[in-house]
């Protein structure tokens, strides 16, 4: 039987602390070679805006192979629909049976924030107390919860292109809205960029010594980025997956095409830092940056938790699929 978990099922089951721990383990497994994370396959027609990203992963410890099909359809914004939608298919690694089909949107939001929390705990200064957010949508809410779980932030500053969105976010979270992205960057000890930007919204000239950046929001397209080339060059960059970053991350690919730095500048993965194979922060004044494109292995880690929790609690719908 195949377990089907809807968005409401996922919301009833998901636990952010558990997802943070699972994402940490998944990245360590990748570095140890007990998980497989190939580059995603992008499906795009020439001259067409919609893109579909095929994101596979396999984990020995989780006993699953998964694929997430992510639709990135900018035209949905004008329809009042989510720009990104996704579904996750999970197969048993033991016998190949179809274990589950999960709504991907909530999983993506939680595992993305969890990865930022893992990167922040690993790369940020332990005395970081000001969290800065560029963008105030759903990802921002989840990031506040996730990052508060790893560092005791005393102040949160936020900016959004839409002032009303920033003020509504501030009313719900206690954040302080400011008038520009630059104000956020200059105030922050830890900065999260959470916008679907095509052109940079954050400049390296604004970076203070000791800053940690989670570059999260740009969609998986080689011509979209949130951080300018000077910012990427000035930072110690850690990626979630080399193969993914060098295929779909505009934050990485645009400076590479410009000759601002070589591939070695963006060659270290988060899992390698977690297991001590690559260095993390080397000094208090160093600027660190986690380039978070999002990988299928993070979806797999969350899916394992959700499948187990659903079966324990009797949540979800079982269907009989051929095979």
TrEMBL record:
Which keywords does this chain's UniProt record carry? Oxidoreductase
Top EC class per UniProt? oxidoreductase
Highest taxon, organism lineage: Bacteria
Recorded source organism is Nocardia aurantia
| One Gene Ontology term of the molecular function aspect | oxidoreductase activity
Q: What name has this protein been given in UniProt?
A: Delta(1)-pyrroline-2-carboxylate reductase
EC numbers, comma separated: 1.5.1.49
Signal peptide start and end residues: none
- Please, one GO biological process term? carboxylic acid metabolic process
Pfam families recorded for this chain? Answer: OCD_Mu_crystall (PF02423)
The record's comment on protein family reads:
Belongs to the ornithine cyclodeaminase/mu-crystallin family.
Keyword Metal-binding listed? The answer is no
Q: Quote the cellular component terms of the Gene Ontology held in the record.
A: cytoplasm
